[in-house]
Fold this protein.
Amino acid sequence: MSASMSYLERSKLHSNPTAKAFLELMERKKSNLSLAADVTSKAALIELADKTGPYICLLKTHIDVVDDFDQDLVDQLTALAKKHDFMIFEDRKFADIGNTVKLQYSSGVYKIASWSDITNAHTVPGEGIIQGLREVGLPLNRCLLLLAEMSSAGTLAKGDYTNTTIELARKYKDFVVGFIAMQRYADKEGDDFIYMTPGVGMDQKTDGLGQQWKHPREVVYDLGCDVIIVGRGIYGQGRDPAKEAKRYQEAGWSAYLERISK
Ligand code: 5BU
């Protein structure tokens, strides 16, 4: 697969049903924007998801930062996902041994596997983490992104670590559908990974805590990534989330159209 193929063309060739549905959704909605909804109350999260819903393909959550989390929040978010046609990605960044992540993914307060279409994991523990998550997620038609790189200054996820992560993704292709990455990597025969990139913002470069923001065009057109993940650029202080979401959707989509017509 090449960076110049459309999401729709890629969806036709993709073997993972959730990745296939996600690529179709992006094309149908003309959106490669994921909202990073890092707010701490249930009401704020629901309001933000509803306001930005028309413009996003993916709602990215950190469900453990919500003070008043309950099952009703999950029910409301999944109803909004249906209403606005987006998927849900719990950015859980699992990082433990296979047996533990199985429990963390399926059980506890959040029961992530029961509602989150996509989740992600570090590869620090080795391939057991993928095997554990896969045992829970595959029967539920879920899929996984591996953290191949991070957006933050001084990240240790680079070089050999990133290369080994890519090899692990190839080994578990039925469940691993892409990466959190800062660039598209060279494809091998049969690869079609979805590249999701955080650290995207049009108005500021850094947040003083290590985050580094790039322009959507740089991420999608220059670096070949598929999904821009935007948080504070959309809901930060003084911003109108619907207006900003529309602005990021347009920037991300026009960079994609430019890329596939290269
Ligand atoms: P921001 O407000 O646009 O900076 O939010 C970025 C989001 O992406 C936030 O939820 C982070 O936890 C998440 N993130 C990131 O910023 N960098 C990374 O490498 C990874 C996730 Br992985």
Observations:
- Residues 102 and 132 are 5 Å apart (CA to CA).
